[in-house]
Amino acid sequence: MKAHVFPIYQVYLYDEENVTLNNTNEELFSEEYSFIRRRTTINSEGEEAGSVYGWTQVQKTHEGQIIERKRIITKREYYSLFNNRDKSRHIVKQKRISFLWNIQSFTIHVYKEPVSDICILHAQVRSISPEEDNEEDDDDKKGEVEIPTFLEVEKRLMTDSEADEHYGAYHLSLKD
User: Fold this and answer.
1) In 19, 72, 138, 152, which residue has its Cα 20 to 30 A from 61's Cα atom?
2) CATH number, domain at 127?
3) Dihedral angle, C-alpha 154, 91, 171, 62, nearest 10 °
4) 51 pLDDT exceeds 90?
């Protein structure tokens, strides 16, 4: 099995005006923040082979919907935005390991800083349409994640809110 390993540096930005209001001056979002990220490619000799930079804005509605806007940025933009980082938060450092197994895509997030005892397995499976869901095919566990046999999963995170509150980089980045 071939895997891609790459370090991630995630930096949360300080935002003076972090509230979006509607026409009646009510807050549209229950939570809103942005971050920049540097993803570095590691070649087969274990050396850094270049980085990709990105900016992400996250908005969470009162109904629980998450809206993300992402943009690829230049190295120069990254370091300019880095100077506007939120100093009340740690820079989050992770190692990510991505691989395919049994026609499923997996990414393991291994936190390095500010915590080092958390690993999260993200699985992506093919979504199925309602028509496919009604088809009879006992051999195919439609839409279910088959955990690789070589991994041991301690706890399954059932909701995004549970994962965000306890294991999300945004919350883990807060300094005491």
Assistant:
1) 72
2) 2.40.320
3) -130
4) yes
